[in-house]
Design a protein that fits this description.
Blueprint (H helix, E strand, L loop, with lengths): L2 E5 L5 H15 L21 H4 L3 E8 L2 E9 L7 E8 L8 H12 L3 E6 L4 H15 L4 E4 L5 E6 L1
C-alpha cells in the first residue's frame, strides 16, 4: 500500500470541495445544524486562505494513487501553534493505519508547537488523536476542554 500526501493546487480546489461533501456528511451525526441545500449539497467551505496565505496548507491523501482523504493545516506563526484544521480519511480506508501514518507525516512536516481540536461529540476522533499524539510525543502532551467542551491537545514535535 502506497500512501501519498499531495499538496493541493488552486486548480484542484473543486475536487477538494467534492471530497468535502463526504466529510461534512460524516459530521451530520454530531451536529444537528448541518443541512443540505436545495441542490442536495452541503454548503461549501471558504478555502481561499489555502491559496493566498503561506501559513495554510491543503493536502490530498492518496492510497495507491486513489483519493482517500484530505488534510488542512495551519502552520505555526509567532502567535499561533500549528493546527489540524480538518482531517478526513474515507471510510473504505479506515482501520488500515492510513490516518495514523498521515498524521505522523504531517506532524513531521511542521515541527514545533501543535494544537489539535475535536468536537465534543466525536469520541472516535478524540480517541484517534489521543492515541497518535501520545505515540508521537511519548505521552508528553496536555489536554484541555475549551468553552464549547471541545477537546484540545497541545504538544511540541
Amino acid at each position: 500500500m502506497d500512501i501519498q500526501i499531495q499538496a493541493i493546487s488552486k486548480r484542484e480546489e473543486e475536487v477538494l470541495h467534492n471530497l468535502m461533501q463526504f466529510y461534512i456528511y460524516e459530521f451530520t451525526k454530531y451536529m444537528d445544524s448541518i443541512r443540505i441545500n436545495d441542490s442536495g449539497l452541503f454548503g461549501r467551505f471558504n478555502l481561499d486562505v489555502y491559496w493566498t496565505d503561506d501559513n495554510h496548507h491543503a493536502y490530498f491523501v492518496r492510497v495507491d494513487s486513489l483519493l482517500a482523504g484530505f488534510v488542512l493545516v495551519q502552520s505555526q506563526t509567532e502567535k499561533e501553534p500549528n493546527s489540524i484544521e480538518e482531517f478526513f480519511i474515507m471510510r473504505g480506508y479506515e482501520g488500515k493505519g492510513i490516518g495514523s501514518f498521515v498524521a505522523e507525516q504531517i506532524f513531521a512536516m511542521f515541527p514545533g508547537r501543535w494544537q489539535v481540536r475535536q468536537s465534543e461529540k466525536n469520541e472516535r476522533a478524540r480517541t484517534f488523536w489521543r492515541s497518535i499524539i501520545s505515540k508521537c510525543t511519548k505521552g508528553n502532551f496536555e489536554e484541555r476542554l475549551d468553552e464549547r467542551n471541545c477537546s484540545i491537545q497541545e504538544f511540541i514535535i
